[in-house]
Design goal:
about 575 residues, 3-stranded antiparallel β-sheet
Length: about 575
């Protein structure tokens, strides 16, 4: 690994900034009362100015200048002004005075500056540098700048820039080799053989297995969902997701996976054995989670499209039925009007009733048409969605088996119905109806109940129950009341609100932990109460607001919202997402 540092880092290393503004001079060149007391022990203005200049120099750039007179004039002028010396030019005589070497040693001893090779400071600095290189695969120039700042903070005198560049490169190379070694050791001989086969092109094909796995399904359709499930099964069949890689920094795994995603298969094949296996292990490990997220995302789009298509077909069919419905309503209305007009006239009433008896069959036909065609306001046309059950059946059993979901307390009935549906499809695949007591019905909403639960027979229709459960699962999944554990896109947005972090009350989401005694939430537009403006404790008797560490963490790492868009690869991260 080449030892390099960018020009900007080398230009600012052990040197004063090219432009010294007033703020910088006031911040760096300030001398405290203790500093002035030590400096004024020298009787000669030359030695006073020389001592103070060397003190300011080592604080500013981390090392002493070979020629104190080479310090920029604004720095010397700022120091001389604090000492009351009118002529800063007297510093030129300080260069030839042997006392400046004693001043250097005194400054080091008094203010705690140490040589770069002195122990234990060197060991502690190298350990810190190794932790930075181990935690993330950053560029050598970035690590060089971080090491430069750390040396200044630790009051370690800066070595030559080439010494620090070589040290950074050595530590970075050692950390990278350790990552590769641990990942390679985590994979057994059988897994290594399977990973190596991913780079081979099977006979009669034009792409390797790795290229096929790297291509996610682009079409958010039922066929695309089935292909996404096939891809997820192939990735999980490798067994990399079962490896315990908790000892490897996540940023390292992401960096290796990104390289495996962007590199050609021939480039991966040309890597060393250890680095090649480590790269493939990291990629396939993250690919399993990414493929699961792809399946969940496509399901969200597919079922939403099925709902919209069902509503569209229902509205289109409703538009065709309105003519017959209007005719039947008009006929019933005419009969009822004639009846109401004759209520107060007994002879006319007898004539109307006689007419009703003769036209009874026609009246019943019109009333039957009205009863068959009338629909409640805002009807979601669920029967059209239930008609799409054969299409849903293509992916539903595999989806339930492949995706592990968890839920908060309020969504637990929905998740229980989701699991019961999976058991129904797996245990009794040919049974289209079951008694109502054998399946949980808490998930069935009033609008779904006429389609799901037949009160006359006391049974539940499988197709309607499936659509009802999936409708609730999709709604709760989008709200993250139901989530996929460990998922980056569909996971729990409040992972710190757990019983381990916040006690037993952390089992539910922090947003739902608001005290139940508050019957009316405060208005967002009204000003806060006086005790809140003062920053004091809540009023006596008011329950405390539960704290959640994830609120500030989520605000610091919040990224742009993600809607479904066909992506070329799940491991091509967007720059708007923080690492």
């Amino acid at each position: 690994m080449p030892a390099t540092a960018d020009r900007g880092s080398l230009a600012s290393y052990a040197r004063f900034p090219p432009e010294l503004d007033r703020d910088w001079l006031g911040r760096v060149c300030h001398l405290s009362r203790a500093d002035l007391a030590v400096i004024r022990r020298r009787t000669d203005p030359v030695t006073q100015l020389g001592y103070a200049t060397q003190l300011v120099t080592v604080r500013a750039i981390g090392t002493f200048q070979p020629d104190p007179a080479a310090v920029p004039e604004p720095v010397v002028a700022a120091v001389a002004h604090q000492l009351g010396i009118d002529d800063p030019g007297v510093l030129t005589g300080y260069r030839d005075m042997p006392v400046r070497w004693r001043h250097t040693a005194e400054i080091r001893d008094r203010y705690g500056y140490r040589d770069f090779s002195a122990q234990p400071g060197r060991f502690a600095f190298i350990a810190w540098l190794y932790r930075q290189a181990w935690a993330d695969e950053v560029a050598s120039s970035v690590l060089f700048r971080a090491a430069h700042r750390q040396l200044l903070a630790r009051r370690i005198l800066l070595p030559g820039h080439s010494v620090l560049v070589r040290l950074v490169a050595t530590v970075r190379e050692r950390a990278t080799r350790r990552v590769h070694s641990r990942l390679a050791r985590a994979a057994g001989p059988e897994l290594r053989a399977q990973l190596d086969k991913l780079l081979l092109v099977p006979e009669g094909q034009r792409r390797s297995e790795l290229d096929l796995l790297r291509r996610p399904p682009f079409t958010p359709t039922i066929t695309g969902l089935v292909r996404a499930l096939d891809r997820l099964e192939r990735v999980r069949a490798l067994g990399v997701g079962q490896l315990d890689l908790s000892g490897i920094p996540p940023a390292r795994l992401v960096a290796l996976a990104r390289y495996a995603d962007q590199a050609w298969v021939t480039q991966l094949a040309d890597l060393g054995p250890e680095r090649r296996i480590a790269t493939l292990v990291a990629y396939t490990h993250l690919l399993a989670a990414s493929a699961r997220d792809d399946v969940t995302g496509i399901f969200d789009v597919v079922f939403g499209d099925l709902q919209r298509a069902a509503t569209h077909r229902g509205q289109k069919r409703r538009a065709g039925e309105l003519r017959d419905y209007d005719q039947a309503v008009a006929a019933v209305h005419a009969h009822m009007r004639s009846l109401l007009d004759a209520l107060d006239d007994p002879p006319a009433l007898e004539e109307v009733l006689a007419e009703f008896r003769t036209k009874r069959e026609r009246i019943e036909t019109n009333m039957g048409a009205v009863e068959a065609l009338m629909r409640p306001p805002g009807d979601p046309f669920y029967e059209r969605l239930v008609a799409a059950y054969p299409q849903i059946r293509r992916f539903l059993p595999r989806l339930i088996e492949a995706i592990e979901l968890q839920a908060i307390d309020s969504a637990a009935p929905v998740l229980a119905a989701y699991h019961a549906l999976g058991e129904w499809l797996a245990g009794k695949p040919r049974t289209t109806r079951r008694p109502a007591g054998e399946v949980p019905l808490e998930v069935v909403t009033p609008s779904w109940r006429p389609h799901v639960h037949d009160l006359q027979t006391g049974t539940v229709d499988r197709a309607a129950y499936t659509c009802c459960v999936l409708d609730q699962v999709r709604t709760r999944l989008r709200r993250r009341d139901i989530y996929a554990p460990g998922s980056a896109r569909w996971g729990d947005p409040a992972p710190n609100c757990s019983p381990a972090a916040n006690g037993p009350a952390g089992a539910t989401r922090c947003a739902r932990n608001w005290p139940s005694t508050l019957t009316r939430p405060p208005s967002l537009t009204s000003s806060p109460p006086a005790w809140m403006r003062r920053g004091g404790a809540p009023r006596p008797g008011m329950p405390p607001i539960p704290a959640c560490e994830s609120n500030t963490a989520a605000a610091a790492t919040r990224s742009c919202s993600r809607l479904w868009t066909p992506r070329p690869n799940p491991l091509r991260w967007s720059p708007c997402v923080p690492r």
